[in-house]
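Moderator note: this is an archived Q&A kept for reference. The question asked for a predicted structure of one protein chain; the sequence and the answer are reproduced below.
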Amino acid sequence: MELHDSVIVITGASSGIGAATARAANRAGARLVLAARREDRVRDLAAQLGRAVAVRCDVTDQTQVDALVGAALEEYGRIDVLVNNAGQGLQATTEEIGLDDFRALLELNLVAPLALTQAVLPTMRRQRTGSIVNVSSGTTFADVPGTGAYVASKIALERLSAIARNELEGTGITVSTMIPFATSTEFLSSIRAGREAAEEMTAGAVFDSPEQVADAIVELIRSGAPRADLVPAAYGGTR
């Protein structure tokens, strides 16, 4: 898909990969709808970029999801791309996972992308074109102790994406999965539980920049490929 003049909705756009993707898409000439709970941040980013609107949105709230899609259509009259980037981590052994934490994680990392996908599909079907990119995680490539809850949410998102892609074959709509590796964002500081354990696990790791992931997402939108990853070959990726 050509990004110039396309309308791209990005969730979790207030920082990290989401904000970097907004900047990369802006450079490509896209029109943007930036969604996040931290409204002040997305408003500042939208003002910096131009050709962008900011919408406060908790993606786990169906009413706010519907309002986000409505705001995009009111502003631009179409939605060409959805980047489901909003998400959160959780670090705990299987024995110690708090069930309420796990339910909340699934709501954000898995149910919310589905809700957003369902919300934009009627418009994309009418347009007979569209791109949906779901952001997963390189942790799905390994069985690292303490990552079970987070990996389960992201593995499920990957399978949901692949099946949706097959279901939408021939409609002009593609569903793709982006799999970053360790990335320098606010992920660890916003982790739902187990921050100290997560920081200990990643100590000494070399992190990619959000801009590297953003460039890969933009290329994935352009190509419409099923998936892309930034995982080193030593860990089973293609990098």
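Archived answer notes: The two ends are 23 Å apart (CA to CA).
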